[in-house]
Amino acid sequence: MQAAQWFGEGRPNAWIATELRVGVRQVEKWRQAWRQGGAEALRSRGPHRRQRLDEAMFARLEAELNRGPAAHGYADDQRWTLGRVAALIGELFGIGYSLPGVSLLLRRNGWSVQVPGRRAIERDDEAIEVWKRRVWPQVEAPRATWAPGSVSSMRPVKGSGRRADGPGAGGDIGRR
User: Fold this and answer.
1) Using alpha carbons only, what angle is made at residue 67 by residues 120 and 64, rounded to the nearest 5 degrees?
2) Which among 71, 117, 115 is positioned nearest to 92, based on CA atoms?
3) Residue 79: which pLDDT band, with cuts at 50, 70 and 90?
4) How many CB atoms lie within 10 A of CB 25?
5) What is the pLDDT of residues 86-136, one digit of tens each?
6) What is the pTM of this model?
7) What is the maximum alpha-carbon separation in the chain?
């Protein structure tokens, strides 16, 4: 409200910006709002937050989730994904949630990630083991069995315990 008083006194935008430690452009926006609506137009409307689901809304969402994905047009796969839950929230309440936001919402309300315990009917565990033993070693690059030396003249090569160009570099060990 100090800005409104200074606008009434005719103070320049740059001076007000310096006093309030804001940008001149912001003061220009405030002055325009002050001209149109007076000091009341500069009053804070509180923090802007996205609307969240309250308890009643979440209870309705939970009831819809319990009906299953097929009841909402997902006949191909009977699992809820974060994307599907976000779309359902948008359809039911008109509120947009990001995927991490949906995950957080569900976890806060006792829901957890569920991974199906079944495996494909066609899965052949013996064939997989044979492939791991015979084919994978041919595909995987062999690991190097040697350690590269140091390119630095100040750091010793691993295992040598001495500098490559310092005293004793000629192969003799001991005092000089």
Assistant:
1) 125
2) 71
3) confident
4) 10
5) 999 999 998 888 999 999 999 988 888 877 677 777 888 899 999 988 888
6) 0.43
7) 91
Q: Quick one: which of 61, 114, 115, 130 has its CA closest to 91?
A: 61
Cβ neighbours around 47 below 10 Å, total:
5
The residue ranges of every structural domain in the chain are 2-42, 55-108
CA distance 39 to 3: 9
CB 61 within 8 A of CB 52: no
Asked whether 69 and 84 are in contact (CB, 8 A), the reply is yes
pLDDT of the residue at 150 = 63
pLDDT at 75: 82
Alpha helices in the chain (DSSP H): 2-9, 13-20, 24-37, 55-67, 82-93, 99-108, 125-134, 136-139
pLDDT tens digits, residue range 132-173? 888 888 887 777 666 666 666 676 666 555 444 555 444 444
Whether the Cβ atoms of residue 83 and residue 99 lie closer than 8 Å to each other: yes
